[in-house]
Amino acid sequence: YEELQQTAGRHGDDLRNTKHEISEMNRMIQRLRSEIDNVKKQ
């Protein structure tokens, strides 16, 4: 049972890390999009 709790905790951490990575990637994508728009306007 304790092992199950540890495994669940690990999965929870993985999930949090993944969500954090996704939000960072979304920020990068937005920055790239605005840079692309700037290049198109030139």
Automatic annotation (TrEMBL):
Q: Does the keyword Coiled coil apply?
A: yes
Stretches for region Disordered: 1-23
Q: Which residues form the signal peptide?
A: none
Alphabetized, the UniProt keywords read: Coiled coil, Intermediate filament, Keratin
Q: Which GO terms describe its biological process?
A: intermediate filament organization; keratinization
Tell me the protein's name: Keratin 5
Q: What PANTHER family does this protein's entry cite?
A: GATA-TYPE DOMAIN-CONTAINING PROTEIN, KERATIN, TYPE II CYTOSKELETAL 5
